[in-house]
Amino acid sequence: MNEYADAAQGGLAPDTLETVLRDIGASRYHNRHPLHRMMTSGSLSKEQLQAWALNRYCYQAVIPRKDAMILARAEDPAFRAEWRKRIEDHDGSDGWNGGIARWLKLATGLGLAPELVVSERGALPATRFAVGAYLSFCTNRSLLEAVASSLTELFSPMIISERVPAMLAKYDYVTEDILEYFRPRPAQASRDADFALSYVVRHADTPERQQAVIDALVFKCDVLWAMLDALEQAYGDHGHIPPGAFDPKRSP
């Protein structure tokens, strides 16, 4: 049951709306997922980390595409000037010197072939469905809802602060160089989240709009959670890898 389904009934003061949005992260963000906790405890195998990196690449690769859809629908030049920084962060200046390239470096540093990662052909079906749903949401819902769905970045610095030290301490084949993707992300995510939160709180000025942004953030948390559910189902101790998906026993 979605406990936030009627959270905006009667309307919320701006600071109360912000409190609800932050509470969604505290209760639904994927740092609470068992797979994340296994990662930070050091109990994942190298093959499981490879599967995580390969599937997460699909999500990283779609970020500038969904941001381009948001950008195209924004009429305010000041909004566009701020939002396009997100695309630059991930694509870099030439498409391959930004965050996507650094994530590919992480995946290949774990031993995956770059062609396998970039092709996305080894991704789980559920990963592709989740990522596609996110892109569709940002394309077809209102601009306000699309912006609100990005508010998971409020919680990104927290999960990075858990993940990076644990990976360096628990997995002897993981180096700071491999994890270069995460170095600029806390500052970038905080910048982006501050802008998006201010926009959402300012423009969600009716109970209906407030509920829409609450639902958008719940949806986005569900996307990220579903991706880890799929990994756990496929690559857990008694997992079942779907046909065509990355199989550590068969893939290079």
TrEMBL record:
It catalyses: 6-(2-amino-2-carboxyethyl)-7,8-dioxo-1,2,3,4,7,8-hexahydroquinoline-2,4-dicarboxylate + 3 O2 = pyrroloquinoline quinone + 2 H2O2 + 2 H2O + H(+). InterPro entries: Haem_Oase-like_multi-hlx, PqqC, PqqC-like, Thiaminase-2/PQQC. Residues 21-229 form the Thiaminase-2/PQQC domain. Keywords: Oxidoreductase, PQQ biosynthesis. Gene3D superfamilies: Heme oxygenase-like. GO terms for molecular function: pyrroloquinoline-quinone synthase activity. This is Pyrroloquinoline-quinone synthase. Belongs to the PqqC family. PANTHER family: 4-AMINOBENZOATE SYNTHASE, PQQC-LIKE PROTEIN. Pathway: Cofactor biosynthesis; pyrroloquinoline quinone biosynthesis. Its EC number is 1.3.3.11. The keyword Ion transport does not apply. The gene is pqqC. Ring cyclization and eight-electron oxidation of 3a-(2-amino-2-carboxyethyl)-4,5-dioxo-4,5,6,7,8,9-hexahydroquinoline-7,9-dicarboxylic-acid to PQQ. It comes from the Bacteria.
